[in-house]
Amino acid sequence: MTAIETAALTKRYGSTLAVNELSFSIPSGVVYGFLGPNGAGKTTTMRMLTGLLTPTSGTGRVGGVPITDRDGLREQIGYLPEEPPLYDEATGREQLTYVAGLRDLPERESQDRIEELLGVLDLTVDADTRIADYSKGMRQKVAYIQAVLHEPPVVFLDEPTSGLDPRAARTLREEILELAANGTTVFLSTHILPVVEEVADTVGILYEGELVAEDSPEALTGVETDGDESLEDVFLELTDADEVAMDG
């Protein structure tokens, strides 16, 4: 089953072409690593796929729902943006309870899930502290929990390990793998390439709004053919302007 698909998805801002005829198809239950340098169009793409931006042209569907149908998408997706919206005056637990209420989740089940995820991410002790007093890593944990709280079939994560210490980052990587193992599709954008190498089934590399490569990490790095390139090597080669021009 296809979880995310686009056809010639395009976004212009005046004369600036941010995303250019992007087409891909992502099956259910995989981790898709979405890479690109700053300004490549990654965030614009994620905002279109989550219904926050209207495409200039082209189409997209997430969980079978057109990306122009915001209400329909709401039930299909979870989204952790790079700058997550949190209420500073609320405690972590209050923030999550509020989100559960907005989504009309059953109270008992949602509270059980909140407590479970707070425990997994080592946030239980600080759950009743105001978010204004949280570190960046603690804020990131709350934002991740609210993105997956309703157990959506598709989750979009933009720099999910930002601000996390090594132990918490490892826990989150394990959580991402568990999501995929349970059938959730994870669309992951990050600059931390070892994270992508560890968790992604497929990697797409975006450069100047265009998808310049898409394959498994093993195929891209040549592991399948006894190559010895790292994903970083491949990324730098594909997003170097001179190299891309030479390749046509």
Structure description:
By secondary structure, this protein is of the alpha/beta class. The protein folds into 2 domains: 2-76 and 154-246, 3-Layer(aba) Sandwich (Rossmann fold), CATH 3.40.50.300; 86-151, no CATH class. Helix content is 38%, strand content 25%. It contains 10 helices and 10 strands. The chain has helices spanning 42-49, 70-74, 92-102, 107-120, 136-148, 166-181, 193-199, 217-221, 231-238, 241-246, and strands at residues 2-13, 16-27, 31-35, 57-62, 65-66, 77-80, 154-158, 185-189, 202-207, 210-215. The strands form 2 sheets. Strands 6-7-8-3-9-10 form a 6-stranded mixed β-sheet, with helices on both faces. The protein has a 4-stranded antiparallel β-sheet with strand order 2-1-4-5. A hairpin with a 2-residue loop joins strand 9 and strand 10 (210-215). Helix 3 (92-102) crosses helix 4 and helix 3 runs parallel beside helix 5. The protein is globular and about 45 Å long. Mean pLDDT is 92; it is low at 241-248.
Descriptors:
10 helices, 25% strand, Rossmann fold, 6-stranded mixed β-sheet, alpha/beta, 248 residues, disordered C terminus
In the CATH hierarchy, what is the class of the largest domain? Alpha Beta
Structural class: alpha/beta
Radius of gyration in whole Å, from Cα? 18 Å
Largest sheet: 6 strands, mixed
Q: How would you state the average pLDDT, rounded?
A: 92
Tell me the CATH architecture of the largest domain: 3-Layer(aba) Sandwich
Q: Unreliable runs, pLDDT <50, ≥5 residues? A: 241-248
Kindly report how far apart the N and C termini lie: 34 Å
Give the overall form. globular
Query: What is the count of distinct domains?
Result: 2
Strand content: 25-35%
What portion of residues is helical? 25-40%
Number of helices: 10
Listing every helix as H and every strand as E from the N terminus to the C terminus, the arrangement reads: EEEHEEHEHHHEHEHEEHHH
CATH topology term of the largest domain: Rossmann fold
Strand order of the largest sheet: 6-7-8-3-9-10
Question: What is the β-strand count?
Answer: 10
Query: What is the H level of CATH, i.e. the homologous superfamily of the largest domain?
Result: P-loop containing nucleotide triphosphate hydrolases
